[in-house]
């Protein structure tokens, strides 16, 4: 029988009623063979609560949902204090801050210490002159209040020095940052997920090629094929990409597009639209197969070790980042042809150009993302607070789409330039807080890895030329 890792959770009932976080964690833990131990499933009628709390404090892993109510509950603080007094607290405890408390705030830490001082003194005063051999449990509770009062300041200062992730970010990543420290997803599961994704991409490619018979027939002609079914065509295209002939395939698609366009009359708007959409969709799906499978598996492993905080990629173009991020997030890449420069831009990412300076870089990034996501600028008539709320919800909902054709994962490309405003950790933290579902991508300086079957520069030139052709033939 398969053994489950046991993980205790220490939380305030009051906060759980308001948030349902423990219920969320329980569902996610089940998918990882983790048994979440909580009071309502680990205890039976007649069990001693203190015995359960002592078992919790000695657990190998304890998820602690910190809140103002938690820090002011005698039993929550008993669990925290007892856990802290045992060894390896830093490795065993996994904190989550579930409300607006700020343990970095010195005034808040002092107020908590004062709270427990008053509670201890009040409890002690109430028992003054009473026989401790008679009021045994009451005196034990006074001693507990004293222990909490004497240790809480050190405890909270310790908590303040730990790097944690905001609740919004944890929810967006399905608590991956914490659960991966306890029970990382198996690499074979990740590989299987990638294989399933590519199989779905292959199926969608076959559907795309059926949308324009004229385009499909031209591809068959240009490639010199003798195939009569769609399975033979899209399978052939993918195999050629895997064999390192991506550029030749894209050039054939490009030629097929031009020849198909020439056969259509200008009044056939529906046929022209189908042609454009089929050509663009076919390229977007084929490019995913240019990422090496072994590199992708290694990259996923590294991302798990980073607990999903950000993806670190070797040196590559903006368009190359779009391909890799799409393969990792299991979405379809999109590109934008830059008519004023030589760069093929990722359709779902934003970055700052070299030498950029601004008094309010966070506000500028929000504006750029709004334009990229909503396909329009924030006008002067639109309230920026409401625009941010719409942007945040849109990024989240599109990321969670179950339909692959609708799913999108937007990202911010962090520059390899210490002078850039985006290199400021405070700026990054503010953007993460405002847009917790936005992916952060960092390029490693000087790093060179064989990420693609066809090298990045050659890949991007082929794609850029393809999009330039689409732009040139676009109806006026």
Biggest beta sheet summary:
4 strands, parallel
Mean pLDDT metric = 85
> How many separate domains make up the residues?
3
What's the CATH H-level homologous superfamily of the largest domain? Toll/interleukin-1 receptor homology (TIR) domain
Class per helix and strand makeup: alpha/beta
Radius of gyration: 28 Å
Short description:
This protein has helices at 13-19, 21-30, 39-42, 49-57, 68-71, 74-85, 89-92, 106-126, 136-160, 167-172, 176-182, 187-209, 213-222, 230-242, 246-263, 269-286, 293-305, 318-329, 361-374, 384-399, 425-434, 456-472; strands at 5-10, 34-37, 62-66, 93-97, 311-313, 335-337, 344-346, 349-350, 411-414, 439-443.
Could you characterize the architecture of this molecule?
It contains 22 helices and ten strands. The longest helix is centred in the first third of the chain and has 25 residues, at 136-160. It has three domains: 5-182, Rossmann fold (3-Layer(aba) Sandwich); 187-289, no CATH class; 295-451, no CATH class. The chain has 476 residues and is of the alpha/beta class. Strand 9 (411-414), helix 21 and strand 10 form a beta-alpha-beta unit. The radius of gyration is 28 Å and the shape is elongated.
């Amino acid at each position: 029988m398969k053994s489950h890792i046991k993980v205790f959770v220490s939380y305030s009932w009051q906060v759980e009623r308001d948030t349902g976080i423990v219920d969320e964690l329980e569902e996610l833990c089940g998918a990882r063979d983790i048994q979440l131990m909580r009071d309502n499933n680990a205890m039976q009628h007649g069990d001693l609560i203190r015995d359960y709390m002592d078992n919790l404090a000695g657990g190998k892993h304890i998820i602690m949902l910190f809140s103002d109510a938690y820090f002011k509950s005698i039993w929550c603080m008993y669990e925290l204090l007892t856990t802290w007094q045992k060894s390896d607290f830093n490795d065993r405890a996994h904190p989550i801050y579930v409300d607006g408390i700020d343990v970095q705030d010195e005034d808040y830490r002092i107020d908590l210490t004062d709270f427990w001082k008053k509670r201890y003194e009040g409890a002690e005063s109430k028992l003054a002159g009473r026989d401790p051999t008679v009021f045994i449990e009451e005196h034990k509770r006074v001693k507990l209040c004293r222990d909490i009062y004497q240790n809480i300041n050190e405890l909270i200062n310790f908590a303040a020095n730990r790097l944690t992730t905001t609740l919004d970010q944890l929810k967006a990543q399905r608590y991956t940052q914490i659960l991966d420290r306890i029970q990382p997803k198996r690499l074979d599961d990740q590989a299987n997920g990638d294989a399933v994704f590519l199989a779905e991409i292959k199926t969608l490619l076959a559907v795309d090629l059926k949308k324009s018979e004229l385009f499909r027939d031209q591809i068959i002609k240009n490639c010199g094929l003798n195939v009569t079914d769609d399975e033979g065509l899209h399978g052939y295209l993918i195999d050629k990409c895997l064999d390192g002939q991506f550029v030749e395939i894209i050039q054939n698609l490009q030629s097929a597009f031009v020849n198909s366009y020439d056969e259509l009359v200008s009044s056939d708007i529906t046929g022209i639209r189908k042609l454009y959409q089929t050509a663009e969709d076919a390229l977007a799906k084929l490019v995913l197969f240019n990422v090496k499978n072994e590199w992708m598996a290694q990259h996923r492993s590294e991302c798990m070790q980073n607990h999903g905080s950000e993806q670190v990629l070797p040196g590559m173009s903006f368009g190359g980042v779009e391909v890799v991020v799409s393969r990792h997030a299991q979405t379809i890449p999109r590109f934008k042809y830059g008519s004023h420069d030589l760069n093929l831009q990722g359709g779902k990412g934003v970055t700052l150009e070299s030498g950029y300076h601004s008094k309010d870089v966070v506000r500028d990034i929000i504006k750029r993302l709004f334009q990229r996501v909503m396909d329009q600028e924030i006008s002067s008539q639109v309230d920026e607070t409401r625009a941010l709320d719409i942007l945040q919800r849109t990024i989240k909902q599109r990321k969670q789409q179950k339909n692959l054709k609708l799913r999108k994962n937007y990202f911010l490309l962090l520059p390899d330039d210490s002078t850039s405003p985006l290199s400021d950790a405070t700026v990054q933290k503010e953007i993460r807080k405002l847009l917790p579902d936005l992916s952060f991508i960092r390029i490693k300086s000087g790093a060179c890895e064989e990420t693609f079957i066809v090298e990045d520069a050659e890949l991007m030139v082929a794609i850029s030329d393809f999009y330039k052709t689409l732009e040139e033939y676009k109806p006026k």
